Every structure is written in structure tokens, then in C-alpha cells.
Amino acid sequence: MDVAERVVVITGASSGVGAALATKLAEMGARVVVNYSRSAEAAEAVVTEITAAGGQALAVQADVSEEADCKRLVATTVEHFGQLDVLVNNAGTTTFVPHDQLDALTEDIWLRTLRVNLIGAFMMSREAAPHIEAAGGGEIVMTSSIASTTANGSSIAYCASKAGMNSLTRTLAKTLGKKKIRVNAVLPGLIDGDWAFNTWGGGDAEQYEGLKKMFADQTPLGHVVTPEDVADTILSLITGSDYVTGQLVTLDSGFTL
Fold first, then answer.
1. N or C: which end of the chain has fewer CB within 10 A?
2. Where are the domains of the chain?
């Protein structure tokens, strides 16, 4: 797909992968909706960067765990830009709970994790699909995780939510294919960024650098993926062949080999 003049909604785009992707897409001529849940200032900063460079972007607040917000986000996009061609379900949440602490994984954590990571991705896809079809077809891309296929991750609930997202990717790809909507997912490993620094590194720079080195040393390519790496992989699915669908693309420098 040529993304010039296409309209792309990116959920969770105020920082990290979403912000990197929004900037890259805008540089290629796409019109971008920068969704955020709470980080209004950060989202507006992304929009300002894009517009200052001559691109088109709009920040829209919406909590994807809420059905009404999903409807409003899509409706606002179509009202503002007149169409919707690509949806990137990038919004995600997690609560760090060691896997052996089963009692600490409360119902509230389960429900919040599933509502944002899985149910939110479904509701956004459901709302976007008719508009993508009306535009002549397009893409839905999910930001999943290698936690979906391994026994490791920030919590059991997170692993399960991303495994569900993988299944959702494949079932939507089969369901929406006749509407010329392709659905794929990217499964990153550890992503170098603020969340990893604060959660896995405990906010300690020396500890975090040690963690990154340990992770990188376990990969054939000796690299911890960055938000830009993930954004590039998502871009490759959007701008590549129109006949790739239902695929789960692992991006972990070979860690899970």
C-alpha cells in the first residue's frame, strides 16, 4: 500500500512504538490520528512534531477499553479526515506480577489487561472495518508480543491477552479478507524504552544496561529491539505486499529461536 494521503489511526501513540510509527507514517505522506488515553501533553507533542515538518496529524483522546470511546475515536477520525484506511492496534497495558504469585494476579488486573489488550483491539477493529472497506480495503496491524508464545512475560494475564490477540489476528484476517482488509501482528521481544527501564530495570540505569546486555547476549543478532525497529516492522506490513494476511511476525533479534 502506498500510504500517501491514507488515513491511519494508531492507538497508544503518545510515546514509544506508536509515536515512532506516527512520525514515520507522516513523513511518508500519511494523515495520522495519534490516540492517547491519559498522556495529552505527550500526544500533542507528537502532533506538533509532525505538523512542524509539514505533515498532517490529529490527537484524539480515547480509552480503547471502553466501547463508547472506540466508537468516538473512529467517528472523529472519519469526520476530520473523511476516511479511514489503516488501523494499528498498538495500545497496551500490563501490571508486573511474578508468575508464581498467583494470588497477586487479581480479578481487577485480569479484567483491565484483557479489556485494553484484547477486547479493545477487537472493538477498534470492529468499528474501523466498515470504513476501511468503504475506502477500498486496507490494513489492520496488531502490536502483540513474544510473551504470547512463550512462558515468560510481565504477568500471566499479559501473556494470555497477547495470545488472544494472536488468535484475533488470524480469525479477523480470515473473516475480513473478502472485504480486502488484511490483518497481521508484530510480536516484539523486550523493547528498549521507558517501560522496560522502569519495570525491568527498576529505574536504575546501571541495572537496566546490565539487563539489556544480558538479553542481547542471548540473541543471535546481539540487539535489543527499539520502538523504531517495531515501527519499521509495522510499516513493512502496511507498505509491503497486499497479499500478506493472518501472519504473526516475530521481532526479537532471534531470542526465541
1. C
2. 7-189+227-240, 190-224
